[in-house]
């Protein structure tokens, strides 16, 4: 089922305002449970997790910044 432009926009806003900060807190807490890894390994983990969160949401973010394609043209 395809989401409308308005629904994608709402879900993208929810993902950026609510889900992303929650993901950051959970990620930092999970990394904190382990002994501090070497700096480069820790950096690589944060970079990988910073990319991984966006992959499932790619379809939601696609085209959200453009004008609504469903509006009638004048």
Write a structural description.
This protein is mostly helical and 74 residues long. The protein has a domain at 20-61. 64% of the residues lie in helices and 0% in strands. The chain is built from 3 helices and no strands. It is elongated, with a radius of gyration of 17 Å. The relative contact order is 0.17.
Topology, element by element:
Elements: H1 5-33, H2 39-52, H3 58-61
Concise overview:
The chain has 3 helices and no strands. It has a domain at 20-61. The chain is elongated and about 60 Å long.
Q: Report the mean per-residue pLDDT as an integer.
A: 85
Order of helices and strands: HHH
Range of strand content: under 5%
For the CA atoms, what is the radius of gyration?
17 Å
Q: How many E strands?
A: 0
Number of helices: 3
Uncertain regions spanning at least 5 consecutive residues: none
Shape: elongated
**How far from one another are the termini?**
29 Å
Helix content: 55-70%
SS-derived structural category: mainly alpha
**Biggest pleated sheet:** none
Label this structure with key terms:
64% helix, mainly alpha
